Amino acid sequence: MGVLINMLNDESANTVQKISVLDIDEISPNPLNHAPIINIEELAAAIKENGLQNPLHVYKKGNHEYVLINGERRYSALKLLDIDEVPVIIKPAPASEIVEKLMILDANAQRDETPEYKQQRAKEYEEIYHHLKANNMIPTGTLKIDWIGNHMGLSGRQVQRYLKKDNPKEKKSQSNEEYYADLAEDFRSKLKTKVTFKKNSFTIGFKNEQELNRILEILDIT
Predict the structure, then answer these.
(1) Distance of CA 188 to CAs 22, 77, 99, 108, Å?
(2) What mean pLDDT is reported for the chain?
(3) Burial annotation 155-182 (CB, 10 A radius, 16+ → b, else e)
(4) Which residues are 56's β-sheet partners?
């Protein structure tokens, strides 16, 4: 079907990042990417009709050898369409395998995730967190659940649930302080107001009666 650069939509074609064109056979899937490759036929049909929304992201491994770091589903769909040449953005090679894993997980945040894969991704982030912390690469005082939540766009409490699932030992290991801190964060997110925890009690702040009524309505208290 020729060079797919012409199939890029206008927004992607005008990106400030330099877009190159590679033979699709020069590109390999990344063995560190454990995300499920699903709904490829639907994606291929969408690309054929609407063009490619975003180029693939790769890094150079060797002479005419490139490895995907973002776009495994798009790559599979393009292969299904028998595309010979594809638009890519060539990124610098990751400094280490752990950095490469982090780049892949962050890229996969754009996917529509099943609960099962979201749990898997949370646990992969957990492994990376422990590695980085052991190498003094995590800021002092940064809780694991907060660090993972920032990467996944989840609250600490939500991350905690994914990490605990099917892991009773992990469930027992969390301190009360971490648990209540997560719960306070959930309250803040839901109520859109200041919530603090101190000495076995939560304090919900509000500026005026109107804001109090809004909070009571959210809590379904009349």
Answers:
(1) 47, 41, 32, 27
(2) 84
(3) bbbbbbbbbbeeeeeeeeeeeeebeebb
(4) 88
Q: Give the tens place of pLDDT for each residue, 143-152.
A: 899 999 999 9
190 vs 185: CA distance, rounded Å: 9
| pLDDT > 90: percent of the chain | 48
Q: Which residue has the tokens 């995590």?
A: 138
Contact 34, 124 (CB under 8 A): yes
User: Cα torsion at 87, 23, 2, 15 (round to 10°)?
Assistant: 10
Residue 157 tokens read as: 């409490």
- Position 182 scores a pLDDT of 67
Cβ contact 44:4 at 8 Å:
no
CB atoms within 10 A of CB 141: 6
Total-model pTM = 0.66
How far apart are alpha carbons 41 and 20 in whole angstroms?
Answer: 25
Helix (H) or strand (E) holding 23: strand 20-23
Q: What is the pLDDT of residue 197?
A: 78
The mean per-residue pLDDT over the stretch 53-76 comes to: 95
Q: Could you give the angle at which helices 156-164 and 115-134 cross, rounded to 10 degrees?
A: 100
| Comparison of pLDDT for 116 and 190, the residue scoring more | 116
Contact at 8 Å (CB) between 89 and 68? no
Tokens of 106: 């962050």
Residue 38 near residue 44, CB atoms below 8 Å: no
Where do we find the tokens 């491994």?
61
Sole residue written with tokens 């529509």:
112
